[in-house]
Design brief:
Blueprint: H1 3-19, E1 28-31, E2 35-39, E3 49-53, H2 60-70, E4 79-83, H3 90-95, E5 98-110, E6 123-126, H4 130-143, H5 151-161, E7 169-176, E8 179-188, E9 193-200, H6 209-224, E10 229-234, H7 239-244, E11 248-258
Helix pairs in contact: 4-5
Length: 263
Amino acid sequence: MTEQKLITTIRENASLGCLSWKNWSGLNMHFDRNSFWFTSTIQSPIFNTIVELDPESPLCESYLMSIEENLPDSDIPLAWMVPGECTPSQELLRKYHYYFLGSTQGMVRDLSNWESTRGRQSEVVTVDSEEELLEWTRVVASSYQFGPDWFYPWFEMHLAAGFGPESLWEHFLLYEQNKPVAACSLFWGPEVPSLANVAVKPEAMRKGFGLAVTESALSYAKMTMDPEFITLYATEQGLGLYKKLGFQECCSTNIYQRATILH
């Protein structure tokens, strides 16, 4: 794959992963050739995101206006994901009340030479029941410090999206002394998979569990589909882990968030 094709694949997989949540009734989803966004009544940008909207498009402002008019609540904290090479004008950001929140790095790892370092030997299982999906959600919610009203929507959204060998999503749980302490997911894109939702419970951090569950998922992907590459988006906190596993940065996405106090 060329570098540009890899960048396109990273971003397409991220969009398709979000699109897979369309079966959950809690999201209002809009998708057309120029834009993709979803909103809800939940007070979190996790459930309210503009996934695709070019800030340099002449249609951008009309879309932002439409999104604004159709929000279920004026205080919804909406996130806008913008490719790093595109920059919304300051006038546009001010008019629609967006501020720069941070950025994520699109990364890729060549799996043709993947070989696990086989470090920590903990039990890692693929999630195959609703009970295990609840446990997976608890780990993710604990790691990402979900608000009290986000837990069950996250669980229900991933339940509706489907999971397991016949689905687009497969989730993993790492157990230590019979307790789930780490988690991650694979999303099977059209060409290559993506790694997502890498999480470790706060009390279990810095013990190698994040590395171990991620290595297990990569080995599973290699064994199951033998893809050429695997992609992911990384926050600043996760960059060290992924670089240790051989991932390389390819692109970036800037995150702008809509101010929630507009009156």
